[in-house]
From TrEMBL:
This is CRISPR-associated protein, Cas5e family. It comes from Alkalilimnicola ehrlichii (strain ATCC BAA-1101 / DSM 17681 / MLHE-1). Residues 87-109, 195-219 are annotated as: Disordered. Keywords: Antiviral defense. One of its GO terms (biological process) is maintenance of CRISPR repeat elements. InterPro entries: CRISPR-assoc_prot_Cas5, CRISPR-assoc_prot_Cas5_N, CRISPR-assoc_prot_CasD. Pfam families: Cas_Cas5d.
């Protein structure tokens, strides 16, 4: 089946996590909802397109690999949202106004501790079964996105085009294992931290390295839901960049 090969390369990236109060952690790997949001943004979809978003999310399977391991970064933020220039809708580069929804929380002083990955480079293989949108449609949208793309948060702008190429493979794990590493990966790196879907490697290995993740979103309620298994470990035979 065709597979999207993505290169997540940005000064800062954030992959969400379990949110408690004002603390915004980041997971080690992107979640399925984050990839869904990025693809939907490229397609020009909106949060109101809940059926399409839930359908696309359910079809996505992926594997991810750190080619250049990142550094953790914590950003303390505070802002008074009641200021006049923040309280009113603002115009975007797309020629349409944008403003915050919500009740009293959209006013007043807010504080956040947001966590990011800095200076890392990740390769991601994404597959979707036959249906719409298909891989060709998604690839075209990533090449010419309807809106600017970001990696987890709007401040996390990619430093290079997100789509590397489209390849054929039986599954996301095997295409990722055979995809050359980024040129910036250290030449002596033997172990590449990665995650992949279950059912593609040895059962004994998967039983030791299985983790349950809450990385799906119910796009109707904007809440993360459920538990989904992923395997975390290391890839050891990643070909060099040619």
């Amino acid at each position: 089946m065709p597979c999207l090969i993505l290169r997540l390369d940005a000064p800062l990236m954030s992959f969400g996590g379990v949110l408690v109060d004002q603390h915004n952690p980041t997971d080690r790997f992107p979640g399925r909802s984050m990839l869904t949001g990025m693809l939907a943004n490229a397609l020009g979809w909106h949060h109101q397109d809940t059926e399409a978003l839930n359908s696309l999310q359910a079809r996505i399977s992926y594997a991810a690999r750190w080619d250049v391991p990142p550094e953790p970064l914590r950003d303390y933020q505070t802002v008074d949202l009641g200021q006049t220039h923040l309280a009113n809708p603002g115009w975007t580069t797309r020629g349409a106004p944008e403003h915050r929804e919500g009740g009293t929380a959209k006013r007043g002083i807010h504080q956040r501790d947001r966590h990011y990955w800095a200076n890392g480079v990740m390769t991601v293989a994404v597959t979707v079964p036959p249906g719409e949108p298909n891989v060709a449609t998604l690839a075209a949208a990533l090449r010419h996105p309807a809106r600017p793309l970001f990696i987890g948060r709007k401040a996390c702008l990619p430093a290079a085009p997100v789509l590397l190429r489209v390849r054929e493979s039986d599954d996301a794990y095997h295409v990722l294992a055979s995809e050359p590493r980024d040129p910036r990966a250290a030449a002596d790196t033997r172990f590449f931290e990665a995650c992949w879907p279950p059912g593609t490697t040895a059962p004994a290995t998967e039983s030791r390295q299985r983790q349950n993740r809450t990385d799906d979103r119910d796009w109707r309620t904007q809440a993360h839901v459920g538990l989904r298994p992923m395997i975390t470990g290391y890839l050891t035979e990643v070909p060099p960049c040619t």
